[in-house]
Backbone:
């Protein structure tokens, strides 16, 4: 698409405007730190611009392509911090890790942090993309490199697990206070 | 239950229906998850800086196309938040509007003292025969109708017999009783765009060309500014700060011209829906704000396809217009603005049937208004009487009409009419927006040659022709 297009830079500009905030949020969910998320978002779009001439929309949408760059960028970031240990986002780090995080995020996540933290990275990712970002299964499939059916199945299993593991007390509390 | 939650549950049930047994707890859990979503706002400064960084990379890299799609797409910047970052490259200047600097423009309504715009009057003289309200249009392509009668030898043009239809119009009010209610109402005037001109000049003063330093010009004003998009199907924007007006038109040099080779047929005609859709896409694509405007309408709706039965031959000739006009009606304090012929005015977007694209958008205001209260006519009988004489545009009555057309008027709505008022100090005059009753035509079946859509009666400064007194004879003292 872009390679032959006379409107090469205009097209990338349009896509940048369309995706920059979404990509930033996606990275923020994985880092919980503003400056880090901004650095990684910059890296993502610079990589995308450099590779844009080879992007072929017949092989998949821009959405899936840019999200995959974002996922890999975050993984590279944590690998560099952890000396090649396979860490994919901030949830996989212990509280003692020397990683900066925004304090207000911790407060916001109080109550569900523990349960989201127990999930595997890909399970947590799918919950975040579906519930927080409102992405369709098709978009999630493109972003994560899975099939749509696989995403649906994984999301359902994750919801079941969350329901089973959230203690009764939390539910009573939620019901009582009508949160 | 929120819509998003309902959709999530629906998807889960498709995979495993047993979830339905736990719906109540699932709803609470999902909504709890939603509440836990961090409130993340991206820093706009970061977005701009990254965009600029990408732009600079782009400029140094493969593409030589200036990264100006950021800016021209946002036409609103031109008068709401315009930034001009000039990148001099030899003799070429790229205007990149990507990082807007706010121009401080007052686009609101400022109230000033009463009668501040001077006396407002309208001529009560009936129109001459040359300014009849006859409509019509051009001649259909291929028409054999001959408008110009041949001159007989030795006969000058004055001697050519000219026998048009002489139609008289009887305007009959069929609406409900009307009441003005208030004795004073606001008249509006557009404010000057001089401020925009000086602010634009201030921004341009930062540009130093190789041949001249714009910063050296003192007390500078931008008189007019034109920016062209150098791309296929590109547009040109023209800004006239002195009038506070902006227009956008096709950049002819970059639009293919071979579309004019073929004759349009009925299948090429733009429907109202398509014209509105194209106009709307154009307005959004270029960030032209419609905040001060009402719902768009297509002018001359349903009349876009004409059949002419040519005189003599009986041949039918079809005419499909090249373009349709879409109006985004200007609203001032919630009232629509009409012209004197009863048509709404506002941003006018021309949509081409040949290109299936918008080719022009004009009458875009980049100024605000002043409002000043005036006494208004409250006598409903006088107002209706004025309407029955044709309103602000009176109609000549022939002494020997070939036909008389009855035009029924419905209950009016209180709107504004745009008028030009000459002033002593400004030879160009001023554009005012005067409270007016707009009487719709309720029976259009017999409105032969009468193209106007409504009859407009200003409530300020109009005299009913009935009130014109003959010039009194001078009393001669014996």
Residues:
């Amino acid at each position: 698409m872009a390679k032959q297009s006379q409107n090469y830079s205009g097209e990338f500009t349009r896509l940048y405007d369309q995706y920059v905030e979404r990509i930033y949020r996606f990275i923020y969910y994985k880092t919980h730190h503003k400056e880090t998320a901004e650095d990684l978002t910059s890296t993502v779009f610079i990589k995308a611009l450099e590779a844009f001439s080879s992007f072929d929309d017949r092989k998949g949408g821009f959405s899936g392509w840019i999200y995959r760059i974002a996922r890999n960028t975050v993984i590279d970031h944590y690998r560099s911090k952890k000396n090649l240990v396979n860490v994919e986002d901030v949830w996989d780090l212990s509280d003692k890790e020397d990683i900066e995080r925004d304090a207000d995020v911790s407060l916001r996540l109080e109550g569900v942090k523990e349960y989201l933290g127990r999930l595997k990275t890909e399970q947590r990712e799918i919950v975040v993309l579906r519930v927080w970002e409102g992405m369709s299964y098709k978009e999630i499939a493109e972003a994560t490199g899975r099939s749509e059916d696989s995403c649906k199945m994984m999301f359902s299993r994750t919801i079941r697990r969350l329901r089973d593991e959230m203690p009764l007390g939390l539910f009573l509390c939620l019901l009582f206070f009508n949160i | 239950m929120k819509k998003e939650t309902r959709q999530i549950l629906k998807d889960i049930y498709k995979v495993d229906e047993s979830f339905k047994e736990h719906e109540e707890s699932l709803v609470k859990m999902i909504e709890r998850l939603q509440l836990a979503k961090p409130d993340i706002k991206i820093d706009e400064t970061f977005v701009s800086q990254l965009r600029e960084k990408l732009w600079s990379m782009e400029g140094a890299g493969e593409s030589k196309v200036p990264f100006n799609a950021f800016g021209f797409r946002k036409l609103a910047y031109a008068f709401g938040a315009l930034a001009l970052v000039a990148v001099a490259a030899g003799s070429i200047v790229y205007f990149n509007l990507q990082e807007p600097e706010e121009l401080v423009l007052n686009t609101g309504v400022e109230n000033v003292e009463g009668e501040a715009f001077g006396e407002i009057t309208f001529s009560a003289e009936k129109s001459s025969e040359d300014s009849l309200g006859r409509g019509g249009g051009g001649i259909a392509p291929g028409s054999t109708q001959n408008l110009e009668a041949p001159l007989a030898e030795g006969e000058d043009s004055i001697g050519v017999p000219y026998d048009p239809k002489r139609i008289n119009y009887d305007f009959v009010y069929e609406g409900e009783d009307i009441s003005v209610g208030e004795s004073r109402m606001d008249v509006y005037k557009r404010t000057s765009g001089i401020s925009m001109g000086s602010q634009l000049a201030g921004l341009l003063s930062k540009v130093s060309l190789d041949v001249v330093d714009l910063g050296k010009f003192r007390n500078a004003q931008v008189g007019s500014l034109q920016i062209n998009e150098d791309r296929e199907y590109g547009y040109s924007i023209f800004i006239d700060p002195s009038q506070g007006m902006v227009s956008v038109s096709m950049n002819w040099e970059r639009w293919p011209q071979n579309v004019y080779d073929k004759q349009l047929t009925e299948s090429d005609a733009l429907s109202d829906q398509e014209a509105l859709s194209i106009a709307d896409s154009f307005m959004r694509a270029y960030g032209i704000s419609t905040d001060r405007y009402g719902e768009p309408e297509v002018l001359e709706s349903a009349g876009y396809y004409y059949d002419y039965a040519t005189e003599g031959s009986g041949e039918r000739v079809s005419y499909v217009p090249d373009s349709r006009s879409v109006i985004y009606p200007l609203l001032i304090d919630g009232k629509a603005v009409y012209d004197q012929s009863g048509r709404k005015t506002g941003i006018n977007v021309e949509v081409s049937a040949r290109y299936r694209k918008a080719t022009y958008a004009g009458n875009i205001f980049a100024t605000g208004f002043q409002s000043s209260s005036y006494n208004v006519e409250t006598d409903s009988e006088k107002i209706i009487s004025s309407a029955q004489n044709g309103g602000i545009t009176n109609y000549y009555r022939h002494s020997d009409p070939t036909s008389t057309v009855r035009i029924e008027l419905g209950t009016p709505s209180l709107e504004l009419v745009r008028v030009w008022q000459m002033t002593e100090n400004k030879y160009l005059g001023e554009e005012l927006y005067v409270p007016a009753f707009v009487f719709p035509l309720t029976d259009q079946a017999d409105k032969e040659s009468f193209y106007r859509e409504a009859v407009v009666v200003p409530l300020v400064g109009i005299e009913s022709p009935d009130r014109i007194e003959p010039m009194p004879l001078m009393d001669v003292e014996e």
Summary: The radius of gyration of chain B is 29 Å. The longest strand of chain B covers residues 430-440. Chain B touches chain A through 43 residues (CB under 8 Å). Helices of chain B lie at 3-15, 23-35, 44-60, 69-72, 194-204, 272-285, 380-387.
